[in-house]
Design goal:
The chain has helices at 2-18, 32-46, 67-76, 98-111, 115-130, 163-172, 227-239, and strands spanning 50-55, 79-84, 135-136, 188-197, 203-214, 219-220, 246-248, 251-262. It is of the alpha/beta class.
């Protein structure tokens, strides 16, 4: 009998530990807005209404680029799509998005915790395949790529710094005796290149910027006699090399890039 009781207690213990947290667990009784949102959500749930909330941030409006595709996929499962913004000022004593959090709980209970992520992946894939002529880049309304374009020999996924390109550049450039090298910490010397790389890996430069700054002497813009020389080495390397295109959901896409080549 004692063994049976122990077994039951162990089962109860693991069930209680496995119990998922709910939005109700952290509701402040004085948070009237959250309580009202929960009441509205419960009413909608009783009427078989499920809502997926896409959070758009609190400054500006960060739209989901595949909103139409996501909305269509959700409708198949009788789930509505809703954009949800966040307050600019947050009170730690209050709960926000209570309606959306309860709806998400119910969606997870019914379809599984990975259901929404899988739909978002599928929706974005559909969008990308319908917009292969678009150029994707950070800061644009249609959003960035998942993985940046790569130069042969790049060791890391870094949108600005390309180790393979840097290595190739360093192997070709020669610094003359009258060249003024970097002096001290916080000094700068780099060639900034702005380019588009299409989904076939072809690069095209549309702008550039060279900067030299000696922090100790507060001087800038020197070594000008070498600027064209640096360009003559870097530009052909960039434009005559086949890049690995940027990717979104494993699909090659056109990308706008801002890369740096560091000088001595």
């Amino acid at each position: 009998m004692k063994k049976e009781i122990i077994v039951i207690l162990i089962i109860v213990f693991f069930i209680s530990c496995d119990k998922r947290k709910s939005v109700y667990d952290s509701v402040n009784p004085k948070d009237s807005v959250c309580i009202k949102e929960l009441e509205d959500a419960e009413k909608d749930l009783r009427n078989n209404k499920l809502v997926y909330c896409n959070y758009t941030g609190n400054i500006g409006f960060h739209a989901l680029r595949a909103e139409k595709q996501m909305d269509s996929l959700l409708k198949i499962k009788n789930i509505e799509f809703q954009n949800e913004s966040s307050p600019c000022v947050v009170d730690e004593k209050l709960n926000y998005h209570c309606y959306c959090e309860l709806m998400q709980e119910k969606i997870n209970e019914k379809f599984g915790s990975k259901f929404i992520d899988s739909l978002l992946f599928k929706a974005d894939s559909i969008y990308i395949l319908k917009h292969l002529d678009e150029v994707f880049y950070n800061g644009s309304l249609i959003g960035s790529w998942d993985k940046p374009a790569l130069f042969p020999g790049d060791k890391y996924y870094d949108e600005h710094n390309h180790s393979g390109l840097q290595k190739e550049f360093d192997s070709k450039v020669e610094y003359e005796k009258d060249y003024r090298y970097l002096n001290g910490e916080n000094s700068l010397a780099f060639l900034q290149v702005y380019l588009d790389i299409d989904r076939n890996g072809n690069a095209k430069i549309y702008d550039y910027h060279i900067d030299f700054f000696d922090y100790s002497k507060k001087e800038s813009g020197f070594n000008k006699k070498y600027w064209e020389y640096f360009k003559s080495i870097a530009f052909p390397l960039i434009e005559n090399t086949k890049w690995t295109p940027a990717k979104i959901k494993n699909i090659n896409v056109n990308s706008r890039n801002d890369i740096a080549i560091y000088l001595k």
